[in-house]
Write a structure and sequence with these properties.
It is a single chain. The chain is of the alpha/beta class. Helix content is 39%, strand content 15%. It has 12 helices and 14 strands. Strands 1-9-8-5-4-2-3 form a 7-stranded mixed β-sheet, with helices on both faces. A 3-stranded antiparallel β-sheet has the order 12-13-14. The longest helix has 22 residues. Bound molecules: pyridoxal-5'-phosphate. Pyridoxal-5'-phosphate binds next to helix 3 and helix 4.
């Protein structure tokens, strides 16, 4: 049996090696390393796949978040609401622009932003909300959009972990994650559901005006060459990465299905264990399992992880420290009582390997080891 990894990029590459190598070679021969035709082609293919008017490629997911915030012309002191239980990039970009991140707690079952906590955090300085579609499942966008409309707030979806997930509205309509709010931001970091072979990111929007502005901002705020109407950045998707992503986009649905199938097997085997709670499924979104994250109860989670690593089956903690407790982002006015769920989750969650190449044999081995280790604690 092959070594078990949290993600298996090599196994995935081997299956599409010919196509990828050919795409890379074509870029090498053309030497259009910056803004080559593949970049536009990929943006167009992704627009079609997502059913969104505009995809603006950029350097990485963190830049996507930063640039989307820059497009809103916010000023110091303006507040942006985002969940406490997330990867730091979401909060970092808000702070970097001199805006105030307003962290709120998450739901104990599906781990995305708590709707009541979100509404309670709104004040006269609040300008935007960044919900995070954590671990491959969408936040409750319908409720978030209602709140945003009520208070006149912009919504930027952080869909770095949910590229390809589908959101279902009460009306029966469905949309792809990241195409629901004013803007959606994703990452093509190699381990993401749609991963490049280096850094990459993109912003999605159906708003023509915003799209135009976003395109200027990622390119030095330049409307006409050497005329700078906006403060911008240099954030581009490499032609090589775009060529690779063009190949991989064709397999995205297949990749997401493979993750779902692996997750179902985990659910079946682990669902009845007294110390485990398998990932919740919500009515409004499918789950594409960027991570397969369980909650543990009644055991020492850190010891469990340590024993798993000793047994050569990786298990990771996403995320071990809530953002409000991070040195860079803690603030005297935060009260621990406001982050009860995030605090609990950071002490109790554990993620098992999930990727597109997991075999039945590996899943059997992972779950058998996991249960054996659990029963010795
Ligand atoms: C990966 C990730 C990002 C950042 O993406 P990069 O491409 O690594 O900059 C932002 N938000 C979330 C939730 C992520 O998982």
């Amino acid at each position: 049996m092959a070594e078990i990894r949290m993600v298996d990029l090599k196994g995935q590459y081997d299956k599409i090696k010919n196509e990828v190598d050919q795409a890379i070679r074509k870029v090498l021969e053309s030497t259009s390393f910056i803004n080559g035709p593949e970049v536009k082609e990929f943006a167009g293919n992704l627009e079609n796949y997502l059913g969104v008017k505009h995809v603006i490629p950029c350097g990485n997911g963190t830049d996507a978040l930063q640039v989307s915030l820059m497009s809103l012309d916010l000023k110091p002191g303006d507040e942006v609401i985002t969940p406490d239980f997330t990867f730091v990039a979401t909060v970092e970009t808000i702070a970097l622009l001199g805006l105030t991140p307003r962290l709120v707690d998450v739901d104990p079952n599906h781990f995305t932003i708590d709707i009541e906590a979100l509404e309670n955090a709104i004040n006269k300085n609040t300008k935007a909300i960044i919900p995070v579609h954590l671990f491959g499942q969408c936040a409750n966008m319908e409720e978030i959009l209602k709140i945003a409309a009520k208070y006149g707030l912009k919504v930027i979806e952080d869909t770095a972990q949910a590229t390809g997930a589908t959101y279902h509205f009460n009306s029966g309509e469905s949309k792809k994650a990241g195409t629901i709010g004013d803007m959606g931001c994703t990452s093509f970091f190699p381990s993401k559901n749609l991963g490049a072979y280096g850094d990459g990111g993109a912003i999605f929007t159906n708003n023509d005006e915003l799209a135009e502005k976003l395109r200027y901002i990622v390119n030095h705020g330049m409307k006409t060459r050497y005329y700078h109407d906006y403060i911008g950045v240099n954030s581009r998707l490499d032609t090589l990465q775009a060529a690779i992503l063009n190949v991989k986009l064709k397999y995205l649905d297949e990749y997401n299905s493979a993750r779902k199938i692996a997750a179902e097997q985990y659910d079946t085997i682990l669902g009845n264990h007294e110390n485990l709670i398998t990932p919740a499924k919500v009515s409004w979104s499918d789950h594409i399992y960027h991570q397969y994250t369980l909650k543990t109860k009644g055991i020492d989670r850190n010891l469990l992880q340590k024993r798993m690593m000793e047994s050569k089956v990786p298990a990771m903690i996403y995320y071990p420290v809530p953002i409000h407790r991070q040195k860079a982002y803690s603030r005297p006015e935060y009260s621990e009582a406001d982050f009860e769920i995030t605090n609990q989750l950071s002490e109790s969650v554990i993620s098992l390997p999930i990727h597109t190449e997991l075999t039945d044999t590996q899943i059997q081995h992972i779950t058998k080891t996991f249960i054996e280790v659990l029963n010795t604690l």
